[in-house]
């Protein structure tokens, strides 16, 4: 009986953290980001972003507009830095808050595009 209780306790301690963390938003790493993402919007003009290995990213606001080629870094939790290739890795960059929801598989990037308002804009992407 004692062995059964110890086994049950061990099993609960092993499985419980995984069950609790299943639906939490998490900081995406390069492996989660890699691939093509399209903006979640009702608009016919959707932003597209494609993260590649080697810290490269392609970004386009509309499909008929040429893509921007940039580099990126994920140094701090929930932070994306975008660089022009000539400025990578230590030059001028833009910094964006970044969130990934494992539950919805949505990637949210804040202030990706300039706005006139005081509130931060958010662009939500889903894997394409």
Commentary on this structure:
With 128 residues, the protein is α+β, with helices and mostly antiparallel strands. The radius of gyration is 19 Å and the shape is globular. The chain contains 2 helices and 9 strands. The protein starts with a helix and ends with a strand. It has a single domain, classed as Beta Barrel (Lipocalin). About 5% of the residues have low confidence. It is 19% helix and 38% strand.
Number of strands: 9
Identify the CATH architecture.
Beta Barrel
Sheet having the most strands: 8 strands, antiparallel, barrel
Report the β-strand fraction as a percent range. Answer: 35-45%
**Total discrete domains:** 1
User: Residue-averaged pLDDT, rounded?
Assistant: 82
Total helices: the number is: 2
Structural class: alpha+beta
Write down the overall geometry. Answer: globular
Q: Distance between the terminal alpha carbons, to the nearest Å? A: 52 Å
- Reading the helices and strands in chain order gives HEHEEEEEEEE
Percent in helix: 10-25%
CATH C-level class is Mainly Beta
Rg, alpha carbons: 19 Å
Q: Outline the low-pLDDT stretches.
A: 16-21
CATH topology: Lipocalin
Strand order of the largest sheet: 2-3-4-5-6-7-8-9
């Amino acid at each position: 009986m004692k062995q059964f209780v110890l086994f049950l306790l061990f099993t609960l301690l092993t499985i419980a953290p995984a069950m609790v963390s299943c639906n939490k938003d998490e900081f995406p790493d390069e492996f989660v980001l890699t691939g093509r993402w399209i903006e979640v919007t009702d608009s016919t003009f959707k932003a597209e972003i494609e993260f590649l290995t080697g810290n490269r990213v392609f970004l386009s606001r509309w499909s008929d507009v040429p893509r921007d080629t940039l580099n990126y870094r994920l140094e701090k939790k929930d932070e994306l830095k975008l660089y022009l290739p000539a400025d990578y890795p230590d030059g001028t960059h833009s910094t964006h808050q970044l969130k990934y929801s494992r539950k919805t598989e949505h990637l949210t990037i804040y202030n990706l595009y300039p706005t006139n308002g005081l509130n931060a804009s958010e662009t939500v992407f889903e894997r394409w």
